[in-house]
Structures are given as C-alpha cells and as structure tokens.
Queue: 4 jobs
Job 1
Amino acid sequence: MTTSKTSSHLHKSLRVPQGVAAVRRLFRSSEAALVGLAIVLGIAAGVLTFILNRGAHGLQSLIYGLSGSSLSAASSVRPVSLLALPVGGLLLGVGSRAAARRWRTPVDVVEANALHGGVIPLRDTILVCAQTLLSNGVGASVGLEAAYAQAGGGLSSVVGQWLRLRRADMRILLGAGAGAALGAAFSAPLTGAFYAFEIVIGAYTPAAIAPVAAAALSAVLTARLLGLEPYLIALPGAQAITTEDFLIYAALGVVCSLIAIGIMRAVTFIEENVRALPLLDAWRPAVGGLLLIPLALVTPQTLSAGHGALHLDLGVEVALRFILLVFVVKILASAVSLGFGFRGGLFFASLFIGSLVGQLFAGVVAHINGVPPIDPSDAALIGMAAMAVAIVGGPMTMSLLVLETTHDFALTSVAVTAGLCASTVVRETFGFSFSTWRMHTRGETIRSARDIGWARTLTVGKMMQPAANSASSDIAVSEFRRRFPLGSVPHVVLTENGDAYFGIVETSRAFEATVDPESPVGSLAEMRDVTLEPAENVRDAMKQFDSHGADFLAVVSKEGEVVGTLSERFVHRRYSDELEKAQREMFGE
C-alpha cells in the first residue's frame, strides 16, 4: 500500500502542468506560433550579440587603453599590454582543460544541426561564448562571430528543447537564432538569414523562410536600438562594371580559394604538431600568446578580428608593401591563435584577409600589359567576399554582406561571380569549409549542416530481426535438409560452440544434387568473416551489403554471439522511408 502511494505521488510530481502542455502543443501545431517564437528569440539574439560585442571591446579597452577606437586600427600598442595574450591564454588553457575533464567537446551550431537534430546543451553554449569572449578580449587573432552564432543558436535550442519541438522545427529554430545573432552583428538581416540557410540549416526551404527572416529582422532592429552601430563600408566612388571586370574578378575568386585552402591546412598543421609536442593542453594557448607578441609588435592589425584594420586600409591609400606585410602576419597570427587553442573562428579574419588579397591583386593587375586596371577598393570588397566564401562557405551569404555593407548592387553581382568561382574550386579540390574541416580532423565526415543525424540513430540493432533460423555447422547436410525443407526459409545462420557465429548458408544450396548428404553443412557456409554489429548505422550496413554483394547478413555481438539477422532489402526500404520522412519534415509537409 505504501509503495502504491509513493508511485502515485511520483507520477503526479512528474506531470507537466496543463498550461505548459498547451503551450507546447501550440508551438508544435502552429506555423504562425513558431514565427512568433522566432521573433522573440531574434530579439534575445540581438541582446546577446550586443552584450558579447560590448564585453569584448570593453575588455580590450581595459587592457590596451583604447579610447573608442578598434584594437586592430590602433597606431601602436604598449608592449607591456601584450602580456595579456599569454596570461589570457593560460586562463583559457586551464579553464578549457578543466571543462574537458568534466564534459565532452562542446557542440557548435553546424554540428548540432548536422548530427544532433538541433540540440545543444546549455553548458556548451556558455563554454563556447566564454572561451571566445576571453580569446578575442585579450587580442588573439580570432573573431566573435562564433560566439554570436553559438549564443543565438544555443538559446534557441534550449527553448526548443523545453517546448519539445519536432526535429525539423528544432533545426529551423537553431538556424534562425544563429543567423539572427550574426545578422545583428553586421546590422545585415539578409546576410543573417542566408547564413542560417546556407551554413547552419544546410538548405533553403519554404518552411524555414518565415521564421529565419523574422528572427533576423527582429535581431537587427534590437541591436540598432541598443546602439550597436551598423557595419557599413563607404566606397570612394562607384565605377562602371564591365564584362572584362567579371572575368578578372572571377580570377580573383580562384586566387582566394587557393589561399583559403592553404590557410585551413596551415591551421590544422600547426594544431596537429602542437598537440604532438610534450606540452600540457593548459599551456598551449599561453605559448601561442607569447608567439603572437612579436607579430603584434610588427603591426597591431594582427590583433583581434580586424574590423578596424579593414576600414583603415580601405579608407586611405596604403602602400602595397605594407598590405603584403599585413597579409602575411595576419595569416600567421590567425593560424597561431587557432592552432594553439584560442577559441573563435575565421569569419571576419577571412573578410579582412580577403580585402588584403583584393588590393594586392589589383596592384598586380595594374602592371600586366593588356589587362584593364581595376579599382583597389572594389577589388578589396570582392576579395573579401570570395575569401569568406572559400573559408566559411555560403556564396549568397557573403555576396549579400557586400550588398548590405556597401549598398552597391553592381558590385554585388561581381561578388556573386567571384564567390561562386571560389566555392567551386574549394569544393572540387578540398571539399570542406573551415568548420566542417575542423570536424573532419576529429573523425567526423560531415561536409555541411545537412541533417544526417537521423541516419546515425537508425542502427542495425533497431532494424534487425532478433530471432534467427540457426543450426550447428557440424550437422550433416541430410539432417539440415530435414530441419529446413526446401522453400521454408531462404537462409540459415550456422553457429559453432553454442551461439558463436560460423557463417551463412542458402537453404537451396544444400539441396543441390552435387552436395554430399553426409558432409557437414558448414562446408557450404558463406560470409564467414562478414557480419554486422548492433551499433552500426544504416549507412554502414548498406556499405557492407554493397561491398560484399550480400543480400542477407548475421548481426553479431562483440563477444561473437549471433543476436539477429538483417536483409539488404529491408535495410534499403527503411533507409528510403526515413529519407522521405526527413525530406517531408524539411519542406514542412
């Protein structure tokens, strides 16, 4: 009697209040309600972007004594202030090591949408934002864009989890939050929306248009009301774009793609070799901070993401020799920062580096006979878009960023051309953006945020038929014929020493006239070394069937015991059904 009362009390305590249940049903059943939720989350993303932006700039001002100017645009910095780089690196390393001991590697927005159905734990969002804020705040050559996207997307994910939204809605809401935060950072709603479509969600679908657009607009308006200044680039003077310009800027896109691949490989090369050193993880960012000091003494433009430096180099005429110097040291600073463990991304660094490449490209073109000269400012903006496409991805995202920061439609059309050329070369020769490349080096195989998590959760253990028609491998063929008459079952699993797997035999083969009835049935066994494991996913299973030409396999545990069977026909049917379901959800059907 006591047990019954306790169970009843526990059931009541776990019961969801009717009001909460009604709210959850509303957001699961109404598209308009989901759009309204996206607007609220967009406002929250705008607030978070403002807080992160002001926090990082406040920390930089405190350390470097800035008076309203950007760190990368400073004419010089006090050498003693640069000690903040190794000190901040040490704090970051110790904190990251402590977090790694307790939790796994944090999930970012791209990985969450590709593998986890839009789910990001709250602690992962807090950790990524704190690490990026500290890294950028002490002056490491990384941007805040990773923190912006993580904050907006992470908050959306937490709310979506509480509301128990469907997988497709969770992915859309996560993309909307991440895109809204990034749009707020640049005061560019179209850029934020297409960042969500191309990079976070991985598709442009009718179901995602309204929530993503609404979130981006509300975030940008919120950030403007809070006082976050729009990121605008004033051009010296608009020049007519000719047919020759399209061809020249397409070549610039190819150049940017090759440099981008080199940068991504350089970051990985440094990271892998640093990890191979007998150096504690907690000390790696501190050592990286020490290496950044001489680069910062060459020019402060290597510090932070480079927002101020980009404006500075575009606003006045700068010698190409100095542009080349900044280009080299900025790449080194970014590679060292990320390779030694500072947290952040290459979003704005790629824009800055691309602008430098564009100006250098214009200088080279001016010395080539027969090629019409191009405007260095235009080339800088086209290079900015092309380099960002090559490293971050999203041709439309970066082209619209050019449009929203310059308000020049003619230049945007050229940016689309250069961006598509850069994207094509990178995809053909390298195959990854920076975010997916970093996950590839950790063993993941994703190439975009397209949802493949459902395929990983559809395992052999969930699809297999537990009961298997089995027989001992040492029985005679005549006994096998008696137990399994022709036409009764197509395949039989053979075992030895109890339940240990031996092989598979086709029932019809045992009835062939050339088979000796007194021989052991094990002599007819096939697929002796080919089995499936319960933990393998549906794609692994299909690869096994295809590579060995099998239509029926046994499922064997790690101990070697037969736990079930699976047919190729059933695997392909389940995969097709789940794929069709995922596509219906993606398009909101």
Note: The chain has three domains: 17-226, 243-441, 453-586.
Job 2
Amino acid sequence: MSAQRSLPSIAALAALVLLVSGQAVRAEATGTSCVLDNVRSLVSPPVSIDRVSHVAGTAVIPSYCAVFGHIQHGTAIGFELGLPDSWNHKYLYYGIGGFAGQLDPIVAGLAKGYASGTSDTGHVGTSVQDASWALHNPAGILNHFESGTALPASALKALTAAYYRHVPVHAYFQGCSAGGRQAIVEAERFPSTFDGIVAGAPAWDYSDLLVSFIENGKAILRSQANWIPPEDFAAIDHVVQAQCSVRAGDGTDDGLIVNPLRCQPNLQVLLCRKKSGRNPCLTQAQIDTLREITTAGFAKGAPGYSGYPLAGSASDAGLSWGWSKWFFGTLPPVADRQGRLDFRGDVLPQGSDLGQGPNQYLLGEQFLRYVVLDNPGYDARTFEFPKDAVRLDRQLGGLLDATQTDLGPFVRLGGKLLIWHGWSDPAIPPQMSIELYQRIERSTARYEDQPGTRDSVRLFMVPGVQHCGGGSGLTDFDPLAALDKWVAQGQTPDRITASQVVDGKRVRSRPLCPYPQAAHYKGSDDPSQASSFVCR
C-alpha cells in the first residue's frame, strides 16, 4: 500500500474547489451567503456539502457559518468547516488523535476568528480508541493515515477562499498525538498546504510506538504480581517529586521538574519491608516492572529512545490517573480458560472508566487486530518482538510512519513547525519528540539562501504536562499564538509563557524554552513570574 497512491487527486481537487463560474476567486469580493445552495455552488465532486447552518454568536464564539460535508475517496471523509462572520483572514485545520472516527472540536479556532476545519479521517468510530472500522477496509486505512487529512485540509482551505472570495493570508495546522503525526505528515509530504504547523506530542514513529504499547502490556502480563493498582501511584509521584524537583528543577522549590532526564529517582525507598510501616509500599516485582516500562528502551531496543521519564505531576490528576490508566489499567489482569493472564475489558466509549486494561495495550491490540492483520480475533499476547515488528514495518511502515524527516521543501517555502511535548506524557515518550527534532536537524537538506532549520523548526518541552494536556504542571500555554507571531510577524519563539493553574487560578508562570534550553531562575525577583527566569 503506497503512501503516494492518493496524491494526484489532491491538486486537482483544490483546483475544482477554487474555480467559481470558470474564474479564480477574486480577493476583493465580499463573500458568500451562508445558504446551502450558495455553498454547494462553490464545490465540485468529489466534495459534497451535506448541510449548512448559521450559528449565532455567544460571549466566547462569534457567529459563524457551519458547513458539514464529505469527500468521496474510497470511503466518505466527513468534514466540518466553521466560517466566522468576523474572519481574521486566516485558515486553521485541526488534526485528531487516536483512531479518529470523530470530528475534532473547532470552537477554539472560531473563538479567535479563524476559519476552522477538521475531518473524521474517513470513517465513523464509537470512540477514538476504536479501530474496528479498519476491518476489511484498505481504503479506510489509507484515508485514515494520509488522504483523510490531506484531502480535506487542502479542500477546506480552498473552500474558505471561495466562500470569502479572499485567499487566506496564512494557513495553519494544529494537532496532538495521532493528530501531531498528521501534522508531521503534512510538513513532510504536503509542504505547500500550510505555512505554519503545531505538532503536539507527535506519534510520528507510529508503528514502533504501537509495538511498544504491546510490549509494555506483556511485561505486566507475565505475572499478577507485576500489576500496580491506581491508588499506589500517588506514593510513586511523591517520591519522584521529593527526589527530583530540586535536582532536575529550575532553581526554585516550586516542585516543577523542568528536565526529568537529569534525575533517576530511586524507587527502592518504596519497597515493602516488614518493619518499615510504609503504606502503600511496592513489591520488588512492581518496582522492576515499572522500571522496565519506563527505562528499558523504546520498543525494547529500537535506537534513539530511553523509555518514559518519571517526571511527576504532584496531584490526584497526575500520575495517579494518567500513568496508572495508560500503563496498568484500572483492574488487575485475570487468568483466561487456559490459565494465561489477560486484561479485562475491551474498547469502551471515550471517557469511560469501567475496568479497562491499560490504554496502551488496548490501543496496540486494536491496531494489530484491525489495521495490520485484519483479524478481529487476534490475541496480542502472541506478538513476537522483533520478528513481527519487522514484518509490520515492511508491510505498512511507509504509510504509517512520518520518518522522511528532510523538511527542505517545507522550509524553503517559508514554513514554520512548532513541536511541543509534555514531560509527564504517559502515552508517547517525550524523548520521541526530541529524537524527531534531532532527525529533522540532521536530515533537512540545506541550500544557499534557505532559512536555517532552527529558524524554521522549534521544540518546546513542557514540565508537568501529560498527554496533550492535563497534569499539574505548566498546562496553560498557547502554541498557536506563538506560531502565528512567528509566521505572520516574523517573531521567532525564543520563549513561550506558560502558567500553572491550581483550582482555576494561575499560581505561577514560567517560560517554555526552545530545546535544548530550559528555564532557570535568575536568583532574584518574584519566582512566581516568568520574567524572573532565563532560557539557557
């Protein structure tokens, strides 16, 4: 299955949408009424407009024209486009995480005046954890991993121009996780669609990542003694904070771990001993399992990664939810009829917490069953590393993995790529983004008068933030605003101000610094203010 098979139709599709009455749209015209027939007149097959409605404004979101439709490309790629009455003359497309099958919310973009679009990547799922749509569906797989983003991203940009009769002055993409992977795919394979891209926690090395999910689950399934219950993670978090907040901090005593790679916490202090009186405590099997998952190496030996750093979050919404749910699940494994351990539960609606196994393992098993092997009865416990991983890479790696990291065409067109990743991410290893950034630096071809890679690509690591947000660290920051200033005003993001929020109130701010720099306290002034820190 070649990643290139769908490409010829994309340019033709954009041309079809941009042509109105046989002429290119005129930038000086006044725009199009939000009426179904009017919007339908702006497109041609394979683009179809299903419904159009005008949505009244609120205190947060301005009034806008809501356009829903689909693009027929093997499967129906559903899309939504919001066209604000008060448009900022910019276009924003949202990627979506997991296995998609839903439309990502676009309200944040609309609130800022962006014409904002998204798609379901070519299928409808019960949740973003559900991959059953891929069964006997090669066209759906191709759409999900490439065409289902590339086609609507281009078509909705063109439709925006046709609707307003004014070409957007800038076009941006924003996505996280699998949506971050989509962002990197756009920069690599479709460099002219967007002039600014935000990639959060990008799952760019997708096949290796999903293999690691299976291997991490199998480490737990070797013995019931290896499982760690959710309630014990608060104690783990406490130890990480106590040992690392100063050693790997920013020069203050605020508890933020700005670079967890500088600290390897000693979890042996949690070992259960008869006379210690510690409660909760961990057995040696539990400590060894957690250490294996977090430090044994990405995909058990693939070069370039070193697992998940224990980065701490210091709250009940931190390791005690995120790490527990992603790695260990909410209930211990049980023996099946053959006496072999397996996790309880299957894919549940998003947001459900009814005794799932680990999120990592469930996603990995869905991936193998439906995307790779086309076998809903496949038992992921039979996966053999590295033999099966090599077969997977040969079969689908060219489509799944955004590993062609020469971004020369994107850079030469003036594109800007802002990558960010939370240091407390329990889903995608933070070092994975560091490796991506370093690979882009190494492999991007350089030509005379070409902008420098560091002037076009920046990485920001975010203390205390989990997968695509959450946690108790610097959760309040705006990478899109930084990207817009970079693209539209030429202001290279040398720092992005982020805030820590407790009970709805901002308690401190810090600068996020471009990797490999990190924030350090100057030693004077108010340590709760970002202005008291330097990047070095």
Note: Confidence is low (pLDDT under 50) at residues 1-30, 314-318, 347-354.
Job 3
Amino acid sequence: MASKPIQPLVLDNIGIYGLNKQSSPSSLSPQYLTAANNVMLDEKGRVTTRQGIKQITDNIGETQANATPATNTLQIKSLGEYRSATGATTLFAGAGANVYKVNTANTPDTLDIQTFAGGTTKTDGNWQFTNFNNQFYGVQASNKPINYSGSAWLDLEDVASYAAPSGVTNFTPSCILGEFGRIWTGNIGETKDVVYYSDLLIGHKFQGGHSGSLDLRNVWAGDEIVSINGFMGKLVIFGKNNIVIFNGPWSVAYNSESSDFALDEVIEGVGCVARDSVQLIGDDIVFLSSSGVRSLSRTMVQDKMPLQDLSLAVKDEIRGHIVTADLTKVKAQYDLSTGSYLLSFGDRNIVYVFDFKAMTPDGGPRITTWNFDSKRNPGAFLSTDDTLYVGLGALDYAGRVATYSGFYDLEKEDVTASYGNQSACTTAGHVWESSTSKCYKDINNTYQSDFKTTWLDFEQPGISKFLKRFLGTWSGGKNMDVTLNWYRDYSVSPDSSNFTLDPTAGGTEFKYEAPSASGTTLYGSAKYAPAFHPKEYKVSLSRAAKVLRLEVIQTVKGFKASLLNMSIWAKQGKIR
C-alpha cells in the first residue's frame, strides 16, 4: 500500500482578530490568539512587533535639587501639551509636588521645574490638563486649579479678576474641560455632583456674567462626577454609575426660552471608574466602566446613544484589574499614529491595545497587550499629531519621559563619572549636555515579543497528523532570535526549536548624472534605503498530534518583524 504524501496544513490569517482570553482555546478559530504580548496588528492583519519605549529626557533628579538619581521617586503621572495662539507647542509633565517643562533645547531633553509665584503647595502630579482660549489649565483632586498663560504659571485664584463659584469655600475640582466657549469643572470635594462652568471665553471667572453651575442631584441619585467631555456638540458628564448628556452647551447660561441647552439623556447603571480612561475616538467616546471598556456612540439613525462593550475578549481579566488595581493610576490615550486606544493599569505593568483600524466579527476592536521591564511602567500618555509620549512611572525608573519609537527600549545612562568632560564623552560616542555638564550613554535594551495560537485541528479533529516541518515567512527582524514552541494534544509541556531571522537586505540602484562641457558626467551611484525582503524559515517537527498549538517568542533587537504566514507540513495518520 502506497504511503500517504506529506501535505501542507496552511494557517491563513493567523491571529488577525487579535487576543481572546474569554473563550476556550479549543473552541476558537485560528484567527484569534490566546496570548499577544508586545505585538501589534498592522493594517493587513499581520502580527508584528510593537515599537520601543525611547527615553528622551533626563531623570528629574539629575537636574533638580529636590531629588537625586539614586533616590528619585517622582513618578510622571500626567502629560499635557500647551498650544499657543501662534501654533507653538510646549510639553509639560506632572510629578510629585511640581510641574515640569520638557526643555527640548537640551540633549537629552531636560525636565525644568516650573515656579508658581505665591502658589500653594501641590500634593501630587496627577493633573488633568486642557487648552482654552490660548491658556492652559490643570486640575486634580484636593488641589487648587492651576493656569499657564504662555509665559508664567499661577494658581488660578492668583489670576487677575479671578472669581470663585458662589458659595464654594474650597474650589478644588478633579476634572476639567475647555470647550463650548467655557471652562467646565466637576467634583470639587464638598459638592461632588455639581458642574461649575466659567463665563464665556473667561476661564478664570466662575461667578457673574454668564458663568453658573449644573446641579445633578435631581438628575441622578447619589453619584459623583468623574469626567466631563464634549462629544458631537453635546456635553457628556460621566459619573461613577451614570452618564448625563446635555444638548446645546454653547447656550447654557442664556436662560431664555430660545436657549437650546437641555437635558438629552440619562444613562443609568453605567458610568466611568477612571477619569483618565476617557478618550474621544473620531465619532465615539471610549471609557473604562465598572464592567469593562465601553463605547458611547451615536448613530445617524438613532438619536440616543447605545453602549457597546469593547473588552468582551478579555472581560474577566479587565474586571479583575478594576477590582484590585489603583484606579487613580489608570491612564488611557488614543494614539493617532496607530489608530489604537491604549489602556494602562499603571501598578500592574500591562497596557491593553484596542486597535480600531479593523474590527472583529462581533464588532469590537482587535486587542493585544504590551508589557515592559518593571521599571518602565507607563504612568502617563500623550498623543500629539505625530508622536506618542509616555511618562515613566515605576519607582525605580521614575521621573523620565519617553516616546514610542524605534525597536529598542532605550534608556539614557548618566556616565559622567567615567567621562567627565565633553571631549572624553563625545570621543567615546556618547552625548554631552553642556547645560548640566553631564555625559549620557544610550542603552539599547532588547525586549520580548510573543504570541500563542488557539488549539489547531486544521479542520480534521479526529485525524492524527505526523508532524514533519514548520514553515513561517517573516518580513524584517534582522538578527532577531526566535523560539518556536509547539504543544501537542492539549499538553502543557512543549517541544521547542530556536532559529534567527536573517532577512536579505536589498535596494534599488540609482545613478546621479549632471551635464558638463564635455557631455554627461557620472558623479556616482548608490542605492535607495535598504529594505528587508520576506524570507521563509523552516523548523523540523516530530511526533504525532490531533491538535496543535504554536507559540512564537521573539527577542526584538532594533528591527521590526512581521509574520506573513505559517504552515505545518504533515502526513495523515490514523483516525482516532
């Protein structure tokens, strides 16, 4: 009897729906992953490595008198970008009792402490910032609001012509919005369910004129304000257990019959548990509720706003964090560069990445996760037009700002003790910062990227397969070490094999020619920037299995790697 031929078992579209930890791995389709650490999904659905966290500033303690590199514990808890009337921008960070300016005139950038003339002592750096009418404002619980005019910082109460809300003795709001021609604030401690709004175009005047307040005690029962947001011309107020939506916020203070300001909707039983989880994503708002990540969307057909749970695939894991994590350290950001909502549980060293570029069959975003060396936990995010900034918030690596770029987790080490002058520093290939007389060395830290498939039966659940070889095609990943683990028939102990990605670099040759008196002169030839061509890698397999699970562990060393496809070559065995 002739032996059966070896056949390819092709894994098309592996992992294109992202992570799913809620369903059983044996019942999921191959389009899902059961682990997806430090990976992203590109526009074609391919599993690719995340970028690195690249430190761009020094340590706060290296330039400030109130801390030293050895003892600095000032965690970056907030980031904000001030935009002036001319379009110029300045990045600020909150840490400890101070606000710091990211000074880009130095290399590396320095974190310059900001002074408040006559200002009160700040208790924490967990600010929420907003731009309004060419001014910059910040609030946080149990602290007085602050204001930056473009040239100086003041407590808001020290701004000329400041007027506190009527009847309020301690104006310390925890959330702020600059929109609809006013500053809106909420949860001042003594009245947790009242919104106070400023006069029209006057962000420091909360009494007189067209300023006022919205008392929500008759709208919801016993709730407190967590966040205030603008959405499609509506004012959205998030409580812990309710959401209130108003129409016509532009005309809130014009108490006339022609005013458009009116209560639109009250959503009961669903609220927001973390102020900094609320992010506007195009025509939607995403936030963290007590039951998971939710969407507040408005359709053209329906006038109301239906809620949608976006974290169904990791629901139990997210809810576990909500119950046990410090929710004041929860930070989120919509990253413009990747089209993703990033949700960080700062004290848990995990970031959930909700990718909105493509959706899963149930209508939700594709989910992957990021995790970091413990000393690089994100404590704050800020996405500008072209850059994602990360405030580093772990105790042993605090007081630094980084960007999401490159493919190393790059840190800057102060090596002034070994290279104490500019000549010695630059000769060694490091960077000398003259403003601080310090020498900095770039440390390129590698990081691990890994993913795991579901249990694969290749649509032949009852047939044993004699495993012969694995073939995978990667694009990029120069010098990347890869470990392939394969699990057979629900075993927890894998077989393993190691290999290294060594793609071929190539480019298109071009020539530059210019006319001369004698004709055409060839100045030289060169190549366009090299590109790494896709390459297939083979791994020999052994033994038999009815179902198979694959795990790929990659060490990122400065280059991106994208998985294009995988296949298993096997010979059909017995039906069992």
Note: Confidence is low (pLDDT under 50) at residues 65-70, 299-303.
Job 4
Amino acid sequence: MSDGDRASLRSARWFEAPGEAGLAHRAYLKAEGISQRALSNRPIIGIANSWSEFVNCNLHFRRLAEAVKRGVLQAGGLPLEFPTISLGEVLMKPTTMLYRNLMAMDVEESIRAYPMDAVVLLVGCDKTIPAALMGAASVDLPTIVVTAGPAQAGFFRGREISAGTDLWRYTDEYRAGRMSETEWEELEAALVPSVGTCSEMGSASTMSALAEVLGLALPGSAALPAVDARRAAGAEAAGRRAVEIAREDLRPSRLLSAEAFDNAIVALGALGGSTNAIVHLLALAGRVGVPLTLDRFDALFRRTPMIVNVRPSGQHLFEDVERAGGMPAVVKELLPLLHGEAPTVTGRSLAENVAVAAIHDRDVIATLDQPFRAHGAIAVLRGSLAPNGAVIKRSAATGALERHAGPAVVFEDIDDLASRVDDPSLDITPGSVMVLKNGGPKGAPGMPEWGHLPIPAKLLRAGVNDMVRVSDARMSGTAFGTVVLHVTPESAVGGPLGLVENGDRIELDVEAGRIDVQVPERELQARKARFKPPGPKYRRGYGALYLERVLQADQGCDFDFLRRLPDEAVARDPLGLVGGAITV
C-alpha cells in the first residue's frame, strides 16, 4: 500500500496524527506487543466478537475469530478483536429482543470510537445478527458478516430432531401425558448435540440467510454447519475480503438499497423463514433511511412461492440446504424475482455471485414452477384488531384455521396465561381464539417470543393440536401453528387488542389479510375510555430508556432516536476529533 493509500485510511487519523496524540496512540498499541512494522501501512480490521459462555450458539467464535485474523494477516491488514454484548434467546430473560437495541448501540459506538478501517461481525444467535447489522450500518464503515452456522441435528429414539420445532412438538406430547418422564429426560440429553444456532429455519438461520442475500456476507456461508471445517475457512476468506473492502471503501450504504431489501423480503418468503425477520428488516431499513413498510412485505410475499423445504414449514434442516447447494442455489432459482444487479460485499453483483450455483436436491430446494407452496408463506394482516398490522406464518399454520371466527379467551399477561392455561375449569373449546395481552415492546417489555401460546392440556389430551392464537408478542422462528403475531398498536399503549374481553368474536381471514374483533364501535370507545395502561416495569437504567423510546413492531421496535434522519450525514468518527489532544 502506498503512502497515499495509507493516508486515506480512517485509522491513519489516529496513528499518523502529529504530536502528543499520534505518539500516544502508537505507544499504547505497541504496549500490546504490536510492532511499528505491523502497524505501518496496513488497514486495521476490527473483529466484533459476540462470543459468550452463556450463548451456546456462539461458543465457537474464539476459533472463528482466529480464522478471521489469519485471513486479515494474509491480505496485509492488522486484525484487532473487541468484545460486544452477546444475546442468547434461551437463557437471557425476559428476552434478547429487549437488548437488541442495546447491542446495536454497543456495536455502533465501538466501531465509531476505535481506529478501524473495516469491521468483521461475528454473530450467531438470532438477535446478534440484526443488532450488529443495525450498529454497523449506522456508522457506515466497510462491513462483512460471519455467522455461526446451524448446530448438528440431534437424534431421539432413532429420529432426527431439531432443537426448536421438535421441542415444541414433544412438549405438547409431554403436557398431554403421552410422553413419560424417562423419555423427557432422554430428549433433554439429545436435543442440542453441538454448538451453533437452531438447526431449522428459525430466526438465526433466517437472518444468516438474509445477510447473504443483502450482500453483507460471503456467498455460500449461511448454511454451513457450525462444526464444519469449511466454516473456519470461510471466516478466513472473510478476513481477507475485509482488508480489500477497507481499501475499496465499500460501505453498507452502497449495499443496503431499497432493491436489496426487496431481495431479502422475497428470500424470506421463499425460505418460509421466521416472522422475526420482518421486525429486524424494518429496523435495519430505518437505520439506513430506506422507506420500508408492512405493505411492501405484503405485496412481495403474495407473489413469492416457497421453494425451500425446511422445518417448521417443511421437513428438512438448514444444513440440508447446504447439501442441496446452499443459499447461492436458492438465490439462483429466485433470480427472476430478484434485483440480480444489486451489489454485494464481494464486489460482484448478486447474480454474478451465484452464476455457477447448482441445486443438488429438489426435495430441499424446489423450482419456481413447482414450489412447495405457491405463494404467501407469510401474510400481513390488518383490521379492527390490528389497524397498523399483524403477521402470520401461513406455511406453519393449519390451513383449515386460516379462515376462522370464534369467541376470545383472554389472558391479561404471561403470568395469567401460565396460571390458568392448564386449569381444567378453563372455559375454552377448540373453536375459541386464545388472546394474550401485554406481550409487546412496551407491555412485556421487549416483545418476547410468547406468541406461541400453549394449547390447554385438556384440549391436547382430547387430540387438539392447533388453535387460533393472537398476541402482540413474537414467536420463535422454529415454532408453528395458526398464530397471529406482532399485533400493532400493542395492547399496553391502548391498541384494540388491549380492549378485547372474554367472549368477543374474533374473525381471521388470512387470504383477505384481515383480523377483526366484532364489537360495536361505541362499545370499543367506552372500553377505551376505561382503559388504564399497565405501570412501567422499569423506572431506571436501560429498561427505562427502552420503554421511553422504543417504537412499535411495524417500525421495527428500534429506538426513535437511532433511525436515520432525512438528509442526515453519517458521523464515522467521534465528533471528528480523533487527531486531537488526549488526556491520560
């Protein structure tokens, strides 16, 4: 790299600054054992590592970070690893979604404050992917994503099982009394046999795939299993490419266009992916100033066939997508529906990235002409119960229930649900509509994955395996059923869901895109006049900030002050003062 090229690097403002500041910047880095030769004339590549022993999905990231470093060094860069918050959906309570925005802020400010020329995001468990993308996009520094990969499949009594979808199925069997304590313990031992994210098309697999489609990850990286040696080799390749995009100044703003978001939405529908991705894409679009609404999702979902046969919408696991050709094969099949000219982090277009891809198993990846589902794997709903929108994963629902009307059985919050759902005296039938309030961004708070309401045990024992369920919460991407989610406005802010009472008739018509409560307007207004919002769950700290500034689900549940303002100039350096004086 020439002196001129070096001077154009962002990190040069730190390490080639005159006087006291430059001397101190160099000296303190040399205290780590880094020589002047290692520092001179090299792009500095930050590696944002969300490794944590609390997060099994990301437990192999130390090894992947070393692979990234190898690649950076091979390409003539200097890798510097730094930690970020790690979000693990299973152990973190009440939900990782409460902390997605906090991690996004952590990533954003770390990238902005430190002297790096590009950043590699090591992310896995599902909220870490959108959080890191949101933070990096807000700084607009050259960025490349390395994801965790799916865990190995488990085997339970001779049957291949997945960590999420099959857990929900067996839980119903256990609650219905059709599974013994011994079998339950055997399931626990077999369920999660390795590191990596959920092995089906859950939120992590979905977001990993969409990172590739958005052009921010190397093609073919999404579906590689976490324990596959090729994942480390791919991380090494990402390290090499990180140095190149630093020199090219290839920023996320050049990749995250309206066309790129269209591509991601089409891919989401084709994958039968997680409904959580809708919230995350809305948030990411808000960070880069791309106008994106639920109406755009609805329009694209309606014309997109589902061509990937992965649980919970199909039979296979995400690693089988890799065996069948990986995401490049999926993208190549979808090209007639995509903006193939969209640029990507490779420096080539999306279509060029997949030019030589091939599909090796049509039972996993179908054709556009003969898809597994003609259209509408996910549907957007509106109506008197959800004026600003709601969503349902049709591909994991019961077709006979997509048009349904029944009396509401209302649970005021998750504690009310837990205490009453298995009460033998609960007044509920298979035709009832289960309603959960206070599961949204402010009400829960954090919009946890409570939307997959458990079917009452007495109905499970009677052979009922699905019911219409409605809430302002989210649902795990691994879950299934006729479940209406993300009802907006949420109940805690006085949305219509908060006014529903036991016995109110709720009508669902998925094909028409409607979810309505059949209560006279005068009665609804009277209830609204009596409505009292729940008291805040947090009065201090981050929780209080969250409650004050979080947006609703139809705007991605981001903080209002983090969305890109019209004509906003991106500040890539901390107040533009990196070359100034220091205080030790």
Note: The radius of gyration is 24 Å.
